Amino acid sequence: MIVIIQVINSVHQEVVKILENIPGITWKAKVHENMKDKSNVPLNQIYKSKVLPQAKQASKQFTPVASKEAPSKQNTKVTSKEVPDQWDWVQMNPGCSDVVPDIGHCLSPQVSVTNTFSDFRCFQGKDPERIEYSSQYGLSCDNHGCNTGVDNFPVWQYLIDIGTVPSSCISYKSGVTGKTYRCPTKCDDGSQIPSLIKAKSVKQICLYNGDNHEENIKQALINGPVSTTIKVYEDLYYYESGIYQYMYGKEVDYSACEIVGYGEENGVKFWKVKNVWGREWGENGYFRVLRGSQPDFGGECYIEEDCYQAEV
C-alpha cells in the first residue's frame, strides 16, 4: 500500500513538472494535499489511466480545443450599457462575498448555489449582515442527493418554490459523510425550524440566441454574482494561481461555481470565480479562468454557457 501511495505521489509531482514546462501556460500548478481525500479525486485512476503520456503530448498542443458536441451559436454584438474594465465583488464588499465553501464528499450544485444565494441577499441589502443559508436543507428535502446532476437551475427553482433556512439551523453534513439525510423537521439543536427564506425569481444570463455571453455576464455582475458551472478536467485539481485554461487530461465532471468578477492581466482576460473546494485550493479558494476565449462554445470549459442570476 505504501509503495502504491509513493508511486501515485510521484505521478502527481511529475504532472506538475509537465504543466510547468508547457509553453505559454498562464497558470501555476501544485499538488494540493487537501484534494487527495476527496471522493471526486480518485488517485488510483490517475495512475491506472496513464494520463502522464497524455500530459506530455499536451505540452506540444496546448491550445484549448472546444468540444464537438457543443451547440453551434452565432456570436453577435450586444448593444447595452457600458461596464467597467474590471470588477471584483470580493474586494468591493468582502463582508458579503468572501465566504468560500468546501463541497467535501458531496457532488451537488446545492453548496455553490446556496452560497451564491447568501452572497446575493447580502449584496442586495436583504440581510443587514451576511447570513449563510443552508445547502443541507435543500440536499435533504429536494430529493436530488449528492450525485444527481450538476444543473444549477433546479436548485434555484427549489429556492424560489420552497426556500431554505440559515445554516445555523441546519448545518452542512453531507460534505463529511457523503450521505444526503432525511428532510429535517427541526433544527440541529432541536428547536423549531424558522420561516423559510425564498428567492423571488431567476433568469438565465447565457442563452442560445446568438448573444455575446461575455458581455451579458459582465453586465449582470454589476448587480451581483453569477451562478454557473465549469467542465472539470484533471488539470484543474492542480491549479494554484494565475489564469486557468485547459491544458491536459480527461474530463472528470462538471462543477457548480460562482463568477464574482472579471479583469485583465498582461493582456489576458479572465473571470474571477469562487470555487467550492475550500480555502487551501487555488487563490485562497478562488480561481481566475480565461474569459471570452471561445464564444461559440460556451467559453473556456463552458463557464459562459449555463449562467443564472437570482432576484432575492
TrEMBL record:
Residues passing through the membrane, by range: none
One Pfam family, short name: Peptidase_C1
Residue ranges constituting the Peptidase C1A papain C-terminal domain according to the UniProt record: 83-311
GO biological process: proteolysis
GO molecular function annotations of the record: cysteine-type peptidase activity
Region (Disordered): 62-81
InterPro entries tied to this protein: Papain-like_cys_pep_sf, Peptidase_C1A, Peptidase_C1A_C
PANTHER family: CYSTEINE PROTEASE FAMILY C1-RELATED
Family statement: Belongs to the peptidase C1 family.
This protein's name: Cathepsin B
